[in-house]
Write a structure and sequence with these properties.
Radius of gyration: 21 Å
Strand content: 5-15%
Oligomer: single chain
Mean pLDDT: 94
Low-confidence stretches: 1-10
């Protein structure tokens, strides 16, 4: 009965998004439509799509709020009325690599992120350098200084993501057992601290078991026996989980803090800055996605999807 109710709620949500789409849809308008998942996703997708569309075309983004609403809206579309290349859907991969249930569209108009979520795709060295220059006011970075900063960031990210992998393995195990842990209750700042611009585990969380037990306490679940957890962790790591499938919100906490900490410690890398320059705009965890979304590059699979759908539509309806 509870599952039936959940499906009814999802269906109602999808119908709401479909009706919102119909309010915006204009058959002859030079506009394409993107149905996206999260409330902050339109900021990123709107910018990326508009940069690729030819002049004179616009993209309308509609945030569904949840993945199941995006997929429900896709399923409810009457494709005899609409062009499949004009209306596209964008969702996060999450942990479907490990849980099954990968989604696809027979029409080729559903994009699924390569990594866990949009946040994982944005958090990289390229975005870090743009953030330092364009947000934090660090305008003068030489090519050699860039490389040193990027290498330090890469190593810090490896340290963070590998340490978090055991928690992600436990999350996979819970979800396979049909548990529903509230993942937002797991706070990376409890387990990690920054020593200058580099992340490190707090002393009490150096043992991997301590991280798992903290996560279990926060979500009200029991941790697995160690041999069971070790097997899931091995599977997670073999699938490049530490680099691609640590939950996006955790990675984005790390990335936002990294931007702030590299700025605060920029004198270690750039001799022209004896003190951190003044930031050009206010920046912190509350507005990080809004500020950073426009600084991220469009990665290969997303560009291919946009060109194969939206751009193909514009070419046929120039």
């Amino acid at each position: 009965m509870e599952m039936l109710k959940e499906h009814e709620i999802a269906a109602d949500g999808a119908e709401t998004i479909y009706h919102e789409f119909l309010l915006w849809y204009k058959r002859g308008k030079r506009e394409v439509y993107a149905i996206v998942e999260g409330d902050e996703d339109p900021i990123f997708y709107r910018g990326v799509v508009e940069n690729i569309l030819p002049d004179g075309w616009n993209v309308r983004t509609i945030a569904a709020g949840r993945k199941d609403k995006v997929l429900g809206t896709l399923a409810s579309m009457d494709w005899s009325r609409f062009s499949t290349k004009r209306i596209c859907f964008f969702v996060d991969r999450d942990l479907s690599t490990f849980l099954g249930g990968q989604v696809a569209s027979e029409h080729g108009n559903l994009y699924v992120t390569d990594k866990y979520s949009l946040e994982n795709e944005i958090a990289n060295e390229s975005t870090l350098l743009r953030a330092l220059r364009e947000i934090m006011g660090v305008a003068n970075i030489s090519p050699d200084e860039e490389e040193v900063i990027c290498e330090a960031y890469r190593q810090s990210f490896i340290d963070f993501s590998e340490a978090f992998s055991v928690v992600m393995a436990q999350i996979v195990s819970w979800m396979r057992a049909k548990k529903s842990p509230c993942l937002k209750n797991i706070d990376p700042s409890v387990m990690f601290r920054f020593n200058g611009e580099l992340v490190q585990l707090k002393h009490e969380f150096l043992p991997a078991r301590a991280r798992v037990e903290y996560a279990a306490q926060q979500v009200g679940q029991q941790p697995d026996d160690q041999d069971v957890l070790d097997a899931v962790l091995e599977e997670f790591l073999q699938a490049n989980g530490s680099q691609a499938f640590v939950r996006g919100k955790y990675v984005f906490w790390f990335f936002t803090k990294s931007v702030l900490q590299f700025h605060a410690n920029i004198g270690k890398y750039c001799g022209t800055y004896p003190a951190p320059p003044r930031a050009k705009v206010a920046f912190g965890p509350k507005n990080a996605m809004a500020v950073l979304a426009g600084k991220a590059r469009c990665w290969a699979s997303l560009r291919e999807f946009i060109e194969g759908n939206f751009v193909a539509h514009t070419a046929a309806h120039g």
